[in-house]
Amino acid sequence: MKNDSTFKLFSLSIVWVWLLFFSLVPYGLVIIASLLSHSENNLIQLPFTIKNYIDVNNIIYLRILEKSFYLAGLCTLICLVLGYPFAYIIARMKSSFKGLLILLIIIPFWTSSLIRTYSMIAILKSKGIINSFLMGIGLIHTPLPLIFNNTAVLIGLVYNLLPFMVLPLLTNIERLDNRLIDAARDLGANRLTTFRKIILPLTMPGIIAGCILVFLPAMTIFYIPDLLGGAKSVLAGNLIQNQFLISQNWPFGSAISIVLALLLAMLLLIYWKSTRGKKERDLL
Amino acid sequence: MKIIFSLILFFLASLSFAEENSVNVYAWPGVIPNSVIQQFEKETGIKVNFSTFDSNETLYAKLRATKNAGYDVIEPSSYYIDRMRRQNMLEKLDKNKLSYFKNLNPEFLNQSYDPHNEYSTPFIWGVTGIFINKNYPHSAAIKKWSDLWNKNYTDQLMLLNDAREVFSIALKTLGYSANDANSDHIKKAYLKLKELNPNIKLFNSDAVISILIDDDANLGMAWNGDAFKAKQEKAQIEFVYPEDGFVIWVDNFAITKNAPHRENAYKFLNFILRADVAQKIALDNLYPTANRAAQNLLPEKIKNDPLVYPSHAILKRGEFQTDIPDSALAVYEKYWEELKMSE
Asked: Which CATH number fits domain A55-283: 1.10.3720.10, 3.40.718.10, 1.20.1080.10, 3.10.320.10?
């Protein structure tokens, strides 16, 4: 028994030390930096000021945030539309293929997402796999403009983030109680009504979890718009990077990071509030 | 605050630099071949810790964030030499220890970013000009930057993903200096670039050669060295030294202030300046070398190709990139963001 509690203490303290040094301290440094000023000779210096936060309230930065939200939202929607039936079919599958199919969703995670994005370039570019194939079979004569536009950015984002939508949905749908669906049928509900009234509300936690897991990274993966979109617009991630590296304005870059983090925290809070005490959770 | 910052970064940076008889070199990727590093290690017995950065800004931020990042030899571009020497971050070079300094091409010495070359030795250089794919139908008439505004080129141009390089096009077109720090002039350049927006297909700085070779862009701005490399694989690539002027960039070697292995750093710098070594390097990275002795040793077809080594008359149209104050950089950055957000 004594061993047990030492082990518990040990593993808990690892978690706490980890959180303290790799999450709390760095974040504290960013918060402090966001309240300081800078000059040509010092990256950060006194006095304390809230000027950086006032500067964020500028039409251009708000437009950058708005565009990031729009792109991330669109990506989330596409992932949901593609991912839901996908997860549903796999979850309801009885065959032995099921394990293999789940493995196939996870395998791409074994390669860095940056490398997978570079491989998308090889697929989409003018002399890439798709265009070479279509031109080879004589279907088109000039290459399709598949890369360096917003479509390419969306393809890249959806490709990279789809598993984050599928996996929470999968676990959610797998735990669906079949008896509830049978009961709905027995009571005369057709397929659409069953889906709308029973399946959809019961899988709502999975939908929301998936949406958040897709939306948050989609806001900040700056290399996908850079590599696939031809760096033609500035997104939240690029904005922060540029403030730190190009403008050498660390305090302002920190302030933008904090604002972004607060916005995303608000989304999490809304999710937390919306699932709290709901009856659907009891049913699961 | 700063101390904690420094400690954390210093701890991470110093892990790899434990060895005693060594030299820590921090340079652009792909500019020094492995064989040259090995040759240096064999000749001197000094171990080289070679690491690379992807932008001057990264190099600068790393050296600023930690007073003693542990690097001995660094390779910033001209405008960062300017900034770093003014901020007392570079060692004043003792020319007596650099016996091969005389090999350097005087054309790249005593420039305003480092008068008398007290802090740096030029290494490779290049011109930012216009590349053209001859197969592209409307390409023949391009002679200067202002030609790029032609309505025929909708959604065709590739520009470098660098605010100052892109603004230099508009500044030159308007007759200003590429190093202009006047915010009115920068604003005018921004308005000019906004008119260019419909023609811009993409911004890219790190995959230029493959974009040229694979027809992903037919027209745009590139460094002459990259155009030369692309031309080796695709003969249709042409390069224009714009008539309305252009930017000349120079990457230079320098020794950091308080370098931990200063003597080894001098040995490394002098080794790189040696004609046979610089020739080996130039043959490998194919960028124009600032080492005249090495240039003379190159094969005829490289040293006589105006794509790599333009004539003195052409070079006179160029302007060396110098540093501008942070306040002006912030103006550039603001309009750069505006430019990318306006569609």
From this structure: 1.10.3720.10
